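Query structure, 401 C-alpha cells:
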C-alpha cells in the first residue's frame, strides 16, 4: 500500500520541526541523573592528579634491582612521600602518590620484607603498577559532550573533575490526554457494560518520567468536539508537547484530528508499522502535538519508536538511535506483511545464540504481549520468517529508559 509512511520518514519530518533547545538550568550532581547535558564539560585538572600506585606494594627504582633494598619510607593513600633515595624502596598503598624518583611498584605478593630489607621475586618493568597522572582525563580535554543523557557513570566522571554541579536542559513538560467515552480511571469503581479502564495514561506517564521529563496530567476527555478542543488547548498551554491517545482513526467519534486541524496544524499518517498504524503529528498554538492510536499495545510501540526519539531530541539529546541485537527466530511468519512488524518476544539464551520466542497473542489490544516480553523483534514488510532466521531485536528495557 503506497499511502503507508515508513517510520524513518515520519520521524525525520517530526525532527525537522524542532528549532530550539529548552532553557538551561544548573543542577547539583545528585539530582542530575537522566537530564540532558547542556554544556561541554571541560576538565580543569588531570585525573588522576598524580602518578599513583595501582597496588599495595613497594615503590622503587628498577635500576636498583635485584636488591635487597632498605625500606626508607611508608606512603599511605592521601599522602605524598619524600623523594626516593637511590638504592631504597618505599612501602606504598593503592592510590598513594608515587614518590619522585621511583619508576615502578612491585605488588606486595611478590615481595618479602625482613629486618627493614625488601626482597623482590620475579622481574619488574619500568612503569609497572603505576597509574600515570592524567591517564583518565587530561586538564583541558573535553570530558563529556553536550547533548547526552547523564548516566550514573557520567555523574561520577564529572565529580572526579571536582565539579559539584552541571548545566542541563530544563525537563520538558509533556501533557497526556486520554480520549474516549468508554474510559474509567482505575481505582474509581467497577466498570459498566462497554467501559474499560484507562491504561494508556499510566503507560505514558511512566514512560515520560522514565525519560527524565515531567508528566502533565490532562485526564480523560469525552468523545465530543467542543470538549476535545478545550482540553487540547489547555494541554498545549501547560506543556512543551501534547500527547493524546485514541481518537485519531477514521471513525466519526474520533475528534482529535479534526480539532487539532482547526486549532493548529496536523498531519495524519498511516505509519508502515504494526502495531500502530494511525499516527497524528502537528501543533496546537505552536506546541508540538502527537496523536497516538488508542490500542494499548499500539500506544506502547508508537510511543517507544516515534514519540520517544522526538521528545528526547526536543529535550536536547543529540543521538536517539538505539542498538539492536541479533537473535534467531523461535517462530515462523508465513505471510509477508505490508508494514514493518514489531513482534513482542522474549529473548532466551540457547548456547551462543539468542532465541526470540513470540508472545502467543500479538493483537494490538493485548497489553500482556508487551508486559510478558523483553524485546521487539523487527520483521520488515514483505518478509517471511523461518524458524532460526536471523532477526534484529530491540530490548524493551532500552526503550523504556
Ligand atoms: P480509538 O482510536 O479511540 O478508536 O481507540 C482504539 C481502541 O483503543 C479502542 O478499543 C479503545 O477503547 C482503546 N483505548 C483508547 N484509549 C484507551 C486508553 N486510554 N486506555 C485503554 N484503552 C484505550
Ligand atoms: Mg476512542
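Result returned for the query:
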Amino acid at each position: 500500500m503506497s499511502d503507508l509512511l515508513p517510520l524513518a520518514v515520519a520521524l525525520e519530518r517530526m525532527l525537522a520541526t524542532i528549532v530550539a533547545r529548552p532553557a538551561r538550568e544548573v543542577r547539583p550532581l545528585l539530582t542530575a541523573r537522566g537530564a540532558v547535558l547542556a554544556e561541554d564539560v571541560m576538565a580543569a585538572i588531570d585525573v588522576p592528579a598524580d602518578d599513583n600506585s595501582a597496588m599495595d606494594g613497594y615503590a622503587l627504582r628498577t635500576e636498583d634491582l635485584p636488591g635487597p633494598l632498605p625500606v626508607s619510607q611508608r606512603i599511605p593513600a592521601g599522602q605524598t612521600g619524600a623523594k626516593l633515595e637511590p638504592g631504597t624502596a618505599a612501602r606504598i598503598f593503592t592510590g598513594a602518590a608515587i614518590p619522585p624518583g621511583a619508576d615502578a611498584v612491585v605488588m606486595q605478593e611478590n615481595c618479602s620484607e625482613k629486618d627493614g630489607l625488601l626482597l623482590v621475586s620475579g622481574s619488574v618493568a619500568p612503569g609497572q603498577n603505576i597509574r600515570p597522572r592524567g591517564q583518565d582525563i587530561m586538564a583541558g580535554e573535553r570530558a563529556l559532550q553536550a547533548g547526552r543523557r547523564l548516566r550514573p557513570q557520567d555523574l561520577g566522571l564529572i565529580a572526579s573533575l571536582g565539579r559539584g554541579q552541571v548545566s542541563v536542559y530544563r525537563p520538558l513538560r509533556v501533557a497526556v490526554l486520554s480520549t474516549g467515552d468508554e474510559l474509567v480511571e482505575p481505582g474509581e469503581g467497577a466498570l459498566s457494560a462497554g467501559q474499560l479502564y484507562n491504561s494508556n495514561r499510566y503507560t505514558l506517564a511512566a514512560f515520560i518520567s522514565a525519560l527524565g521529563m515531567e508528566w502533565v496530567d490532562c485526564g480523560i476527555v469525552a468523545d465530543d468536539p467542543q470538549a476535545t478542543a478545550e482540553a487540547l488547548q489547555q494541554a498545549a498551554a501547560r506543556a512543551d508537547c501534547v500527547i493524546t491517545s485514541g481518537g485519531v482513526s477514521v471513525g466519526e467519534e474520533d475528534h482529535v484530528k479534526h480539532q487539532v486541524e482547526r486549532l493548529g496544524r496536523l498531519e495524519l499518517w498511516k505509519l508502515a508499522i504494526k502495531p500502530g498504524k494511525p499516527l497524528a503529528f502537528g501543533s496546537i498554538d505552536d506546541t508540538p502535538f502527537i496523536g497516538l492510536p488508542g490500542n494499548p499495545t499500539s500506544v506502547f510501540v508508537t510511543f517507544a519508536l516515534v514519540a520517544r526519539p522526538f521528545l528526547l531530541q526536543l529535550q536536547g539529546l543529540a543521538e536517539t538511535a538505539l542498538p539492536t541485537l541479533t537473535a534467531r527466530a523461535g517462530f515462523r511468519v508465513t505471510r509477508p506483511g505490508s508494514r514493518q512488524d514489531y513482534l513482542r518476544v522474549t529473548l532466551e539464551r540457547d548456547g551462543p545464540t539468542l532465541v526470540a520466542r513470540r508472545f502467543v497473542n500479538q493483537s494490538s489490544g493485548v497489553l500482556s504481549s508487551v508486559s510478558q516480553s523483553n524485546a521487539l523483534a523487527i520483521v520488515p514488510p514483505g518478509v517471511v520468517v523461518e524458524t532460526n532466521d536471523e532477526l534484529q531485536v530491540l530490548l524493551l528495557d532500552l526503550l523504556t529508559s
